[in-house]
Amino acid sequence: MTSMVSLVSPAMVGVPTALVPGLTFLMVGQIVMDRSRGDAMVAVLGIMTSRILWS
Question: Does the model's pTM come out above 0.70?
Fold first, then answer.
């Protein structure tokens, strides 16, 4: 039973966290609405590059 609790408790935190849009999602959405799709693609490319370099 203890191993089941140790598996379920991270999932209870991780799943809602994954479902909530983050700041980058909101930023890209704002760029799409205010500017153009190309500008949003550049923002996504920058986000992906920074995450790859950070990891």
Answer: no
